[in-house]
Amino acid sequence: MATQPPIIRRALLYVPGSSPRFLASSRKITSVDSIAYDLEDSVSVAEKPGARAAVLDVLSQPRVPGIREQGVRINSLESGLAEADLDAVLRAPNLDTIIVPKVHTGEELAHITSILRRVLPERHPTSAPIIGGVGREGQHERQQQLPPPPVRILALIESARALHHLPAICESTPYLSGLILGAEDLALDLSLTRTPSLTEFLYARSRLTTVARAFGISSVLDLVCTAYGRGAESEAVLRDECRAGRGLGFGGKQVVHPSQVAVVQEGFAPAEQEVLWAARVCVAADKADRGGRGAWGLDGKMVDAPVIGRARAVVGKARACGVDVDQVLKREADVEPE
User: Fold this and answer.
1) Partners of 13 in the beta sheet?
2) What pTM, to 2 d.p., does this model score?
3) Which residues have C-beta within 8 Å of that of residue 73, sequence separation ≥ 6?
4) pLDDT tens readout for residues 264-288
5) Helix (H, G, I), strand (E, B) or coil at 231
């Protein structure tokens, strides 16, 4: 089962590793949760050595404040190119995440894990680091010596085999931080035709979010929206897909163009009214607890433990997305349980 802490990953933007222009432009983005510098589909075989060097250079530069997470989509293990990718990019000081495409079984991620532990043992110890010491001074000294966090793994689920082996994939490595639905390759594998309704992917999308939740994986990214570059029409399609993805349990979405980032991150963040509702529930729940009240309501609706749990989750996500939740809580401080 995954042991990685939760991470906010609403939009994951792919950037071709072979394009100096796109690589430079990526560092000018003011706000994106995750960037995946691509060495796979967007890079021809002849360009891959140069792309590895270019991505290594980008990830060796100082971090950009607006980018929360920097990752690399390597080539699949079955391509025979993955190890060369890892040999190059694992040397980058500012690499956070490896995106592994075409994962079919848990054994593949176990193999990636063994490479991480061999190349970066200080970031991937076989046992958890011990934090201790006598008194606070000893604890502080140990904390100062902690290694950098491990490189996280995101697995692209793109085949019927992967869907079948999903539980084993989720249990295969402690560094698994999220799952991603690769719709185009999955459609090819299942002989599906993509339609605007996306109903042909309903089973795969539902299975991905359900199994991920069962194994404690909080980050699950929905399929790419292929509509962009047509102004309001493309934006409307993208917003509809974000709304449907949230309804199926996804926490974010893959994007292929910078113009999609803001729409997706807004679509997968708690809306203003949702934050207000959650804050009111949390304030009332705290007062109900202090008053020893078991059954109560708010705004004419019953509130029970699952509702409170959801409200606290919304508050936590809103805070992680940069919303000033404390100000909302203060504004609603007079709310009383009914």
Assistant:
1) 35, 255
2) 0.89
3) 14, 36, 37, 38, 39, 40, 99, 101, 156
4) 999 999 999 999 999 999 999 999 9
5) coil
